[in-house]
Amino acid sequence: MKSFHPSNRKSTQTQTQDSEARVDSEAFAGVDATDPYVGEGQKREILTYEQRYNSRGELQQLEIQSPYIKAALREVVKSYPGVNINSNGPISIWKEPWYLFHYRHELSTYASKLRDKKARGHVVFLLEYAAKVLHRDIANYEAMMHGEAAPGLEFPALWMAFKPGTLIFTIIEGHDSIFRLNSISREHETIGGGELLKEWNVSAEHLISNGAELGYVRKDFRIPRYEGYKALTELKTFPLQYHPDCERVKRDLLARGKKYVSLQGIHHSMYEGPTHTSGFPSLTSRSKEYSTVSSADDLASEIAFNNFIQKTEQRVMLDIKTYNDRIRTKKLTFISGAKTHYLDPEQALELSDEELLICEHFVHGFSFAHKDWRHFEVSKLKPVEYNQSAFDTLGHEEYAIFTFARKGKGLIILLHGPPGVGKTFTAESIADFSERPLYKLGGSDFGDSPFLVSDQALRTALNLALRWKAVVLMDEADVFLQQRDIHSSLGNKSASVLLRLLEYFDGTMFLTTNRVQTIDAAFKSRIHLSLSYPPLPAQARSMLWETFILKGTEQRRPRWLTEKFLGKISKEEVNGREIKNIIRVAHAFAVDGKRAMRPADVTHGLQTRRDFELDFSKAVAKRKHEDDQTNGRSKKQKKKNMEFDGEASS
What we know:
InterPro entries: AAA+_ATPase, ATPase_AAA_core, DUF7025, P-loop_NTPase. This protein is α+β, with helices and mostly antiparallel strands and 650 residues long.
């Protein structure tokens, strides 16, 4: 600040051993010496003027002695970067007294309300001192911020617009975000033997949850140097009050903050939007050694690690505590000494509107679709709409399973039958009717080999299922349930792992298989209920055709969907999964033709399936024929070799 540089003022100088001290006589020149409350003899009582300057001519220290001024600062300013407001001795102010500028109006109001004339005189003296030494800065500020142009400042004067404790606006990952300003400081660079102001470092804070507490995390922003005047709204980070749509931003972020707080704990949610992987992509990955996330910049770096974006609609499990305790690669560290809010599941957390405004814009959770941990945008999360009607299509036996599953613990249910007859659908329907998450597991979730189940990975998955009260579905579990063989060490190990964990599993699990006859005898004693699914009869196929066609036509029943048409296509021996795929193909034909679905689209899909079955059968027959020929030649060659060996030995 030019007004503090010694060359800008008349000064008397004295030398100290370790600093250059100056007593500023000009700063006192505007004070009425006849005022009995701030007379010449009391000036030292008010201010002790040991002013230390650094090599750039910036003021380093100013000490305040007056108890009245100290009381005013404690009441009005409360806290300010670089100022020990609550000091028992003199208040030492390092660097320029920016607080006098930022709180000049509040201090003036405070002084006007004082009844004690001496106290008022001391505070007025401080204000007059501030007006004297900051007159150029104040004049520039008033001209640029309250002129005809949009509020803005020249680069060296930006500090005046950034008052510590106020809210600032920026955009993070495409989202409006609000932070609370902690401080603003200069960053210099050396050019030609001198130093040039390179950028401003804006240090702010916002609220982030670690699952147990809600605390403040630092975020730093950089404002690079620019020439001349610039409107504040042209900066990437600027005071919220100057946003052209300030009220709308506050309204939106207040709602988002309330939603963020409501999502603490464990929540099964629906998410539609872009997702970011969180550095711990699968069940088989191992947690990395902890480093520290003490700022939002570090947090952004962590998200960037192994990070890609996908946009999809999916069901997710929000569990911030598990993510922070077991998954996060960098430990979240709150600002030392800052207030934290303990998250009590039995008691609603109450935050001020300002605290809600500065809450994080995403939460961490687990994607059931991708089997990994990700972060999800708060604004794109909503409650799950469970499909209660799906259960209407199940039979009496499935309903009995639901009743048992709802009451019991440690329940293992085996569903067996050919593909596409409703085994998976049964598990999905029971989970939805129970309003519980469905956690699907398969061989690919446990490692590179489909025949090897990791004890640690499966144990982790089952523990998460218990924590989330999820229904577990081990789909196509044939590879894990098959009879153990002395020639298959990997298969035996997988079976042993699963057997051991099933013994102590205290939740509800469905196992599905197409080959019940291959199940190892040891698994039979672990299974509490078993349900067989025969191939679909024509009546069941008709119901599925009708259901999927209605979905493909947005529940608008077309005139051609008659009992006669359903009876015709239901004669085709196809399973439920194939019916679903055929309607998908038919729907694609309609979309491509920019028209509604027609009967021909369905029959075309059926014909495509017939052609595939025919080609597949021919390929299998050809391969079998080639294998038979190869085996025949091998047997003949082996016989010749044996005959040759016999002749040679004789």
